[in-house]
Amino acid sequence: MLPGLRITIPRSIVLSTDVFDSFIEHNDLSKLDISHLSDERIASKFMAANLPATIIGDLRSFITNTRRPLIVRSSSLLEDSLLQPFAGIYASMLLPNESWGTDLRFQEVCNAIKYVYASTYFEKARTYIKSTPKNVSDEKMAVLLQEVVGNKYDTYFYPTISGVAKSYNYYPSGPCKPEDGIAYLALGLGKSIVDGGSSYCFCPEKPKAPLFGTPKDFMRYSQKSYYALKLKSVYTIFTKNEETTLEKLEVDIAKKHGVLDKVASTYLHRDDSLYPGLYDEGAIVIDFGPIVNYDTIPLAKALKLLLRVGALALGYPIEIEFAVNFNRDESKPAELIILQIRSMIPPDKYQDVNIENIDVDKVLCYSENALGNGIISGFKDIVYIKSESFDMSNSNRAVSQIRRMNTKLMDAGKPYMLIGPGRWGSADPWLGIPIIWSDIAGVIVILETPYKERPIDPSQGSHFFHDMISSQVGYLITKKDKGNIDWKWLESLKLIEETEDVKHVETPSELEVSIDGKRGKAIIKEKLMIDNKIKTKK
Fold first, then answer.
1. In the chain, helix, strand, coil percent, each to 5?
2. Where on the phi/psi map is residue 479: left (φ > 0), alpha (ψ -120 to 50), or beta?
3. Where in the chain are the domains?
């Protein structure tokens, strides 16, 4: 059916939730006063505990029989439920797993499992759960131990391609329809996609339809670096997360590894065109041209099939995380490896909202690129980045300021609107504010504004977007010349708190956001806007 491409899943072992229950019970960890312990203290308590004896034999057998790198992934009841996914909230660990000593590798895996268990109770997870109807006591953690997909290159390990495919696209363009879906591809490990960094996107139904304008437009934002796993093992108790074993490499290193000819094109200035493959002259551009435009492997066809089958099986639009690996033996087929399939919120859960007849000059904000649907009201608080004085070099600094305001508003039970430049949730601090979802878990509406003269595409980070969609947060993007937020009105509002980069203000009357999900348009107005002392209709 798909010549030249083999579809498979990684070799895996699953520790189900009853193992977690047994671990908590036998080590008396349920008695810990989690709310008063730091993440480091929680981790150390879990590290000192023992895994259930019933799994030790099978786990050791698995480790003995593989020396490929491993990923220890969380799979909790709440994280992987159909309607309330917590993607990216809990820890996952990447392990080089290449030491000749089985005991060392086994101990490293046991520590990683215990750390993932501990992350169930970390501050990030507790904050996130507060924004849902659930309690931390409802949570149970399963662990998925998988071989990492990829090949070894010197002291690094990574797949040729990582990707995310969605069966419903909230940002269709050109001839593509929302139900045609969308796919994001990146060279190397998938962190650059999951965290909203540079990636290449295309529509699986119409893979050759251009989504980026001219080659010059795309070159500016194409991938310049990628993530790989460092194979120099360090056997220590984990203090942070998978990033301790990742390294960001320049694209030129992948060229030395002989990987780029499968995923790159060359830009020739003389005719302003991209040509698939590598040439002596011209600039290298990671655009996956050989695959997407010239079908060196039938990736688009395979993704289209998998998205349809997955959506049919789950009864919801779905999202697939995958990797593509090329065999060094050219006679063997490439592999499309499915890492994860999860649901998206169904787009047919629409209420009719029609804003076509609204005079956009008389509203506080107008967006022609909005995600979500329905009318969001009942809030008066706004947190926003100071527009005129803000510089993207300070975007990392702004994160902690926003996090503190989010905590205060959540504790007070006040939902709020968040406004700021560029991509929210971007891994690249020059493209937007690099928050994670737990930093803004109390938000009800997000507004992305232009940054100076630089056009920045909307956020595409898988985990950030997935959590936003599952929380059914309204999401609006504005343009400088059309419909941007009324900054004079914003500056006139009652000031609650101000920091170096961020302001928290309150409106005199409730705000109302109307999102037309079928047309991707939205407006923001005060719920009872007064014009010449005459109240307009809601």
1. 30, 30, 40
2. beta
3. 10-147, 151-343, 360-535
**Which is more confidently placed, 355 or 83?**
355
Distance CA 178, CA 347 (A): 9
Secondary structure letter of residue 206 according to DSSP: B
Output the six-digit token pair for 138: 């409802």
Q: Please say whether the beta carbons of 106 and 59 come within 8 A.
A: yes
Instruction: Round to whole Å and give the CA distance between 506 and 316.
Output: 38
Q: Is 159 helix (H, G, I), strand (E, B) or coil?
A: coil
8 Å CB contact between 49 and 33: no
| pTM of the predicted structure, to 2 decimals | 0.69
pLDDT digits 0-9 by tens, 287-303: 898 898 888 899 999 99
In eight-state DSSP terms, residue 435 is -
CATH of domain 10-147: 3.30.1490.20
Could you report the per-residue pLDDT of 179-238, keeping only the tens digit for each?
A: 888 898 999 988 877 666 677 888 899 888 766 656 666 776 678 889 999 887 554 444
| 118 neighbors 37 (Cβ within 8 angstroms) | no
Asked if pLDDT for residue 346 goes beyond 80, the answer is: no
Mean local confidence (pLDDT), 294-313:
93
Contact partners, residue 306, CB within 8 Å, separation at least 6: 7, 165, 320, 338
Distance of CA 113 to the CA centre of its chain: 23
Give CA–CA dist 264/407, Å, rounded.
44
DSSP state letters, 454-472: B--PPP--HHHHHHHHHTT
Give the phi and the psi of residue 251 in degrees, each rounded to 5.
Answer: -60, -30
Helices (H), 387-529: 395-411, 462-470, 487-491
93 vs 367: CA distance, rounded Å: 39
Q: In 3D, which of 424, 437, 427 has the Cα closest to residue 385?
A: 424
Instruction: For tokens 């609650």, name the residue.
Output: 496
- CB–CB of 174/211 below 8 Å? yes
Nearest to 414 by CA among 506, 347, 500, 503: 506
Q: Which residues does 69 contact at the CB level (< 8 Å), separation at least 6? A: 94, 95, 96, 97, 98, 147, 148, 150, 157, 229, 231
Q: Nearest-CA neighbor of 292 among 388, 209, 378, 236?
A: 209
Local confidence band at 153 (pLDDT 50, 70, 90 cut-offs): very high
| Beta carbons of 159 and 150 less than 8 angstroms apart | yes
Q: How far is CA 52 from the centre of its chain?
A: 33
Query: How many angstroms separate the Cα of 205 from the Cα of each of 274, 287, 290, 304, 324?
Result: 22, 18, 17, 7, 19
Torsion of CA 299, 304, 307, 308, to 10 degrees: -150
Asked if 308 and 286 count as a contact pair (C-beta separation under 8 A), the reply is no
